[in-house]
Specification:
Elements: H1 4-9, E1 15-17, H2 26-34, E2 39-42, H3 48-61, E3 66-71, H4 77-86, E4 91-95, H5 103-107, E5 112-117, H6 120-129, E6 133-137, E7 143-144, H7 152-162, E8 167-170, H8 176-184, E9 189-192, H9 194-197, H10 206-213, E10 220-223, E11 230-233, H11 236-247, H12 251-258, H13 262-268, H14 292-311
Parallel strand pairs: 1-9, 2-3, 3-4, 4-5, 5-6, 6-8, 8-9
Antiparallel strand pairs: 7-11, 10-11
Helix pairs in contact: 2-3, 3-4, 8-14
Length: 315
């Protein structure tokens, strides 16, 4: 399976394992890379020295390409970027910030740069900034999301119409059928997050993995748009947010409720009541924890079966 994405990253399949905070450590990234896709370490939940440790361990665990995802709104960004260069990481995905800030700096040092967006407007800004590819992430996605609420099925063809660099689809993709659907709409590859949360190698707490596989349709909702839109599982913390909204809240009150380290508390430490549980709508289709290798094999098998079904359709 060869196309612009496999060629860009030198991988077997056009699939990227998303670099998610508290989920995407070196074990998941190296397992994904060893399975023939691009593994990403999620730097957003790591202090600089921890990131360096994860990069070094990932290098020892795989000889295949891997990258680092860097949300640019986090502190220590300069130190993080320096570590990426010092450790000779060749692929960086940036998000949550202006791509012009770091794209040229990274590319001057021989690094392939991809930026994550949620709209056509920001896809074009990323392209103008000189990125090598764009991830367009639909409203279905877990974690921090776009305010536009544009779904993947709508977003991908609209971005494709305007973009010339390779396009990676994200949001609501956990199966080979969804992978094929987005590629038919114009994507060159897919980025998969939630499905890899429920993997054996994910650094997420086992309690969080269990609530993901137990989730049903409607278990998640986008909230906190006044601060930074985020899709969460509906738990006690989520309900506390809704209570504030019903009373007529302010951004400061929301910040006070959010406090610090809510996402770590939920996803990494397993507090299912008071923690922030970030996952996509597709969690309703994830029914068991599997190895990363099995997840990739399943997606490729489903993709190939779906291609055969499409080829047999007669109009």
């Amino acid at each position: 399976m060869s196309n612009r994405i496999t060629s860009l990253f030198n991988i077997k399949y056009p699939i990227i394992q998303a670099g998610m905070i508290w989920n995407s450590g070196w074990r998941l990234a190296s397992a994904a890379s060893n399975a023939g896709v691009l593994g990403l370490i999620g730097a957003g939940s790591m202090y600089p020295d921890i990131l360096r440790e994860h990069i070094q361990k990932c290098k020892k665990a795989t000889s295949n390409p891997f990258g680092v995802n860097v949300p640019m709104l986090y502190p220590n960004i300069e130190e993080i970027m320096d570590i990426i260069v010092e450790e000779d990481v060749k692929i960086v995905f940036t998000s949550a910030g202006n791509p012009k800030t770091w794209t040229n700096w990274l590319k001057e040092r021989g690094i392939t740069v991809v930026h994550v967006v949620s709209s056509v407007k920001f896809a074009l800004k990323a392209q103008e900034a000189g990125v090598d590819a764009v991830v367009a992430e639909g409203f279905e996605a877990g974690g921090h999301n776009g305010r536009e609420e544009t779904t993947t099925l709508t977003l991908i063809p609209m971005v494709k119409e305007q973009l010339s660099v390779p396009l990676i689809a994200a949001g609501g993709i956990a199966t080979g059928q969804a992978m094929l659907a987005t590629m038919i709409l114009g994507a060159d590859g897919v980025q998969v997050g939630s499905r890899f949360v429920a993997s054996e190698e994910s650094s997420a707490h086992e309690h969080f993995k269990k609530i993901v596989v137990d989730s049903k349709e409607g278990a998640t909702q986008l909230t906190l748009k006044e601060l930074a839109p985020v899709r969460l599982i509906k738990n006690k913390f989520f309900n506390d947010i809704q209570t504030l909204y019903q009373k007529g809240t302010t951004p400061d009150e929301l910040k006070e409720l959010l406090g610090r380290a809510r996402s770590k508390r939920g996803m990494f430490e397993g507090d299912l009541q008071e923690g922030e549980l970030e996952i996509g709508q597709i969690s309703g289709l994830i029914h068991e924890v599997k190895s990363t290798t099995q997840i990739v094999e399943d997606m490729i098998s489903e993709f190939r079966d779906a291609v055969k079904r499409i080829e047999s359709v007669k109009l």
